[in-house]
Amino acid sequence: MTPLRIALAGNPNSGKTTLFNRLTGSHQKVGNYAGVTVDTKEGQLVHRGRDIILYDLPGTYSLTAYSLDEIIARDFVLDEKPDLVINVLDATNLERNLFLGLQFQELGIPMVAALNIIDQAEAMGLRIDHKQLSRLFRIPIVRTVGPKGLGLEELLDAALETADNPGSAPAPLYGAELEAALGKIVAVLNTDEAFSSNFPSRWMALKLLEKDTDARKKLESHQNETQVMRVLSEGIAALERSGGRDSEILVSEARYGLIHGAAKETVLRDRTAVPLTERIDAVLINRFLGLPIFLAVLWAIFQATFTLGAYPQEWLDSLFKALGDGARSFIAPGLLQSLLVDGILGGVGSVLSFIPLVILLFLFISFLEDTGYMSRAAFVMDKFLHIFGLHGQSFLPMMLGFGCSVPAIMAARTLKSTKDRIVTVLVTPFMSCGAKLPVEVLLAGTFFSVNSGAVVLSIYLIGVLLALGSSWVFRKTVLKGETTPFVMELPPYRLPTLKAVAWHVWEKSFQYFKKAGTVILAASILLWAIVTFPQSPPDTPPEEAMGHSLAGWTGRALEPLVKPLGFDWKVAIATVTGFAAKETVVSTLGVLYKVSGGEDDQPLREALRSDPVFNPLVAYTFMLFTLILAPCFAAQATIRAELGTRWLVFYVIFSVVLSWSLCFGVYQLGSVLRIGV
Amino acid sequence: MTIVDLRKGDRFVVTGVELTRETGKRLADMGFTRGTEGQVIRKALFGDPLQVSILGYQVTIRKSEAAGVTVEPLVSA
What we know:
The complex is a heterodimer. Helices cover 65% and strands 7% of the residues of chain A. By secondary structure, chain A is α/β, with parallel strands linked by helices. In chain A, the strands form 2 sheets. Chain A has a 7-stranded mixed sheet with strand order 2-3-4-1-5-6-8, with helices on both faces. In chain A, strands 7-9 form a two-stranded antiparallel sheet. In chain A, a hairpin with an 8-residue loop joins strand 2 (28-31) and strand 3 (40-47). Chain B has a single domain (3-73), classed as SH3 type barrels (Roll). Chain B is 17% helix and 39% strand. Chain B contains 2 helices and 5 strands; from the N terminus they run βαβββαβ. The longest helix of chain B is centred in the N-terminal third of the chain and has 9 residues, at 21-29. The A-B interface holds A 61-62, 64, 66, 92-96, 99, 210-211, 245-246, 248-249, 252-253, 256-257, 260, 269, 277-278, 281, 285-288, 290-291, 375, 378-380, 382-383, 386, 392, 416-417, 482-492 and B 16-17, 20-31, 33-36, 41-46, 48-49, 51, 55-62, 64-65.
């Protein structure tokens, strides 16, 4: 028997993911569907001897063509044709959740609903007659509590039964006028059998009445497109004449009309106490306290990350040093030892030692995200960010950007509008990521010993200012257009479970691990190779050998380009390898100075300080250059995956031009004014 | 009258949404449809954005969006 294919759908914050994890346990993987950049999770389970594949659709409020998530969710049903949809309904928020459920019913797919978090709804004083609700919507409804795993057996039972008895009851009907218009459009749509077997006619008709651009495009393949369009415009005209409003609004109203009617019949509200969430919000997002509290939270996160992270970072550092020493004593000196110790351990080790910082930052952010505070932060920050053309929700990806750009860029998916998403992705790499920190720490510590902390902080601030400034510029030029809605739910506060937070931290950190394991490993080997080859005779002085190597050649070739910024060929090489991963800037300098200096144990700082090319001004310019210049390949690959090649090319050119001109200005001005030389 | 004209704590019933296509549709889909009741819960610093309670949940909208939702104020009992 072929496995049963079930799609799990629901609003954001409906507890869908918890339910998914409960149902599939650890048997899940991230799948990628054709032409889709957003990952869709799928998991397997067995219920009463039947194999089931469960697909976790993106959490959405509706199924319009306005956002990527919504198109993915509906195209999944149309293209993949699962056997059934389980619609997760947040019982504390029934009406808006039913709005999405109705739209899945319109797609003509059999459905079972989970009336989820029913315990919280009852605690809030909501009494829901789920049996009557089930009769009204003609779908089985099962009461569940995801976090406790209650009702899951019954839910799967209902799913099996519905899937085994197809030809399920049709979706409920809307008002007479809408139905009249629908009837006519459905009739013409049905004249093309191939088309109507691909796209359910009733759904297509509704979407066309909603002036859905994606549905309109699909209609181009209809045999009698012009005829459909004629009937459609007649239908729209008739509806708008009698309704007095746009037809897409009338369709939403028809759905809500049905839902309000059903809710009146089935939901009993006795609202008495002010919910806990409102009492917390009265303080946390108070008109005047909101911003100071948010800034304090931010400060606390960074303090905690860097203080707590310093310990494991040190342990990892000494671990890799010990491993290197061990390898040195076990493997005979030569190419292999050099590759393992200097190339791989040196390169990957310097990256891995920053993992504790990244994980801690993600831990705090994930915790706040799961409690519901992050959307409050977006509320508090929106006015400020909006001035620069960003969105309140841009703030979360930007925060994550302090850790690692890869998950940060992916987090921009939560932004509904394409333009907001593009702007956010493009400015996120300006946030000084964890990988740029070692470069800043090294240079600031070497050349600004007294106030190195302030110097590093100034780089972070410049990054934030550049992010805001570029966003403003993008919004005035390449991403012009009307501002997009800031319609964002403030979910009730929830105490996140340890498991959920751990899962989210893992998901985000995994991107970083993957980068360390693949891109940086490859970069370290490549870097080692270009420094080592072509090999010179064994008795050549190191400086000379370096000059003959591929790295020396590349550096010298690039030197004229970076000379106006005060850099020499060594900095040029470090910058190039920095494209592979910003952390490698430090290890490159290490390799370069060790090789050219010839003394194995000379600390990098002393080497830098004694190099006449370097002075505080050059060091600061170099920090800026590292900050602004295009991010590592892993981040670039992520930008490409999220926005496409065109935007990546645009971004790389933009950041190269910006970094070069800004650093040119800083260095030349500093030289003239004799600051830091 | 629109939501912008209301003060913190005011209750209202939606009479229509007058906004451009995407914004109007999104607000309608989130529950801002004719006849739905709601309440202004709070406004952020500088009065923008607003927190509104509708259909029993909390949602934020900007001033510019709130100015497109026509309402009739409800006198609280």
